[in-house]
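Q: Here's a chain of 265 amino acids. Please give me its 3D structure as tokens.
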Amino acid sequence: MSFRQELSLSHLLKMIFGVVALFSICATTAQAGIVFQDNFNRTGALNGSTASFTAGTNWSATPGFFTDGTKAGASFGLFDDFTSAAYVPLPVAITSGNIYTLSATMHRGPSTDPRAAMFFGFFDAAPSWDGNVPVDEGHAIAIAPRTGLASVNLMLHGSVNANETSVADGTNGTTFGVRLYETAPNVWAAVALELAPTNQLILGPFSPTPISISNIHTIGMISNALLPSYLDNFTLDVTRVSTSPVPEPSTFVLGIAGAAGLRVV
């Protein structure tokens, strides 16, 4: 094969891949948007306060939860036994075709217990649980970054994982997330993420398995200590993923133009 023939073949392959790429790009689209966000830029009791960027959405919180102008914290006189919670109604319905990512930035709290944590995630209508039994029979999808340990505890499958999962960047100033997504239409799974400073999956002792979302009605946090971790930038992001089997009209035009080019070659 001559150099000229090789060059022509190269152009031909590039044009073919170009046409394929055009169809692929138009076939799948994604739209992301924040549906709830609170950076706690106010002071006082968290109970009854309105989220920073979601007007009209008020917190329900056990006495002891507060905001200091930059973050949310809590202080309790007695061990709360996983019953002290702060939450808001789920701002959108969980529906097929969406990906839901709830995230928050964690800051080390005043507790001297390195295991102290402020769990956050998706819960049922009255978030609470006994730490020794399954999480409300599966009505919670949450993550618990530890105050003084470079590890998190995962509650993605209806029970509290007995083992800690290490995180390379620690838990002070790190942004974590819990993500709900579909493995098939209306078949849901959950994973834990470290969103900042890196963007990576947190691999626990189990792989994602189907979960039930029928009892998920709120997003919020639960304390497991007298003085749990602080929490900031509490955000729910929804990404709409849609697949269209029929390309846009402009794609047909470009595809025809590409095919004509192939004929000329």
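Q: Can you summarize the key feature?
A: The CA atoms of residues 183 and 189 lie 7 Å apart.
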